[in-house]
Amino acid sequence: MASKEESNDHCSVPLCALNMSVRKRLALYLNPPAVGAAKDWTGLAELMGFEFLEIRNWERHQSPTEAVMEAWGRREHGKATVGRLLELLHELGREDAITDVGPLIDEDCGRYHERLAAPLQVPAVDSSQQASLSMSLDLVPITIWDDPDGRTVEKFDAFLCYCEADISFVKELIQRLEGNKSKLRLCVFDRDVLPGQCLFSIASELIEHRCRKMVVIITDDFLLSEQCDFQTKFALSLAPGAREKRLIPLLYKPIKSPYPSILRHITMCDYTKEATKEWFWERLAKSIKC
């Protein structure tokens, strides 16, 4: 069973860090209807703040527990943490689920902290270490373009790391770079990734194995996003010191927050400079192709 200290430590870990196998294991406990008080997935959904009609809609889902967790993670962002999930399970009285799944949760949280710290602690991440930190997804269909039987998977020129608040600029970027002139293949999470999967593991697989480059769209909203923070630091851990020119920072509007110190050593594509905007898109496209 997770101790109070462990629960507090997990409060800094976003829900997306939980592996798909952990979610499925938890669903084995919460999907079956509970006798008496609502101690199943419906009770968890109520504690998460979902309304009656929302909960009724998930009754048709193959795994309501996984659907509720996915929706909670999207809606609450920074508030949907592993620590908070454990608190809700305690409140629900599901010590049985915590006792069984707790060790697996601890492992996922440990991997999250290791990956998050890697760019700041080591000059490079050993490939064998990186393999042990992630599940094997080499032939697992995780995008809408992958073969359903796992025979082939789609590869991309660049992974777009962005905050949902900047989706309008992201759409313009897609039109510019995937058009007839550049013909680049971009990986856009909200467009290309299949739903119902662990954000943490899928993002790691796409960044490391299926995308040659990663474009980071830096805004104030981006700097507040835990998921964007993880993706950026993970990409840096794969190419420390920008030796492989893997990561491309992009600034499309002025920011009030300090520019990320871990990106200061990498040249940036700056869309805020009126005098050089005419060269921006060609410069960005060529940097992805290189």
3D architecture notes:
With 290 residues, this protein is an alpha/beta fold. Helices cover 50% and strands 8% of the residues. Strands 2-1-3-4-5 form a five-stranded parallel beta sheet, with helices on both faces. α9 links the parallel β1 (156-161) and β2. The N and C termini lie far apart (50 Å).
List the helices and strands and how they pair.
Elements: H1 4-9, H2 20-30, H3 41-47, H4 52-57, H5 64-76, H6 82-92, H7 95-121, H8 127-132, E1 156-161, H9 167-177, E2 186-187, H10 189-192, H11 199-210, E3 211-218, H12 220-223, H13 226-238, E4 247-251, E5 269-270, H14 277-289
Parallel strand pairs: 1-2, 1-3, 3-4, 4-5
Helix pairs in contact: 2-5, 2-7, 3-5, 6-7, 7-13, 11-13
What is the compact description of this entry?
The chain is of the alpha/beta class and 290 residues long.
Core attributes:
alpha/beta; 290 residues; 5-stranded parallel β-sheet; elongated; 50% helix; disordered N terminus; single chain; 14 helices
Structural class: alpha/beta
Strand content: 5-15%
Task: List the uncertain runs.
Answer: 1-7, 119-136
The number of E-state strands comes to 5
Shape: elongated
Main β-sheet: number of strands, strand sense, barrel status? Answer: 5 strands, parallel
What is the residue-mean pLDDT, rounded to a whole number?
A: 81
The total count of helices amounts to 14
**What is the rounded distance between the termini?**
50 Å
The H-and-E topology, N to C, reads as HHHHHHHHEHEHHEHHEEH
* Order of the strands making up the biggest sheet: 2-1-3-4-5
Q: Gyration radius, to the nearest Å?
A: 20 Å
Measured as a percent range, the helix fraction is 40-55%
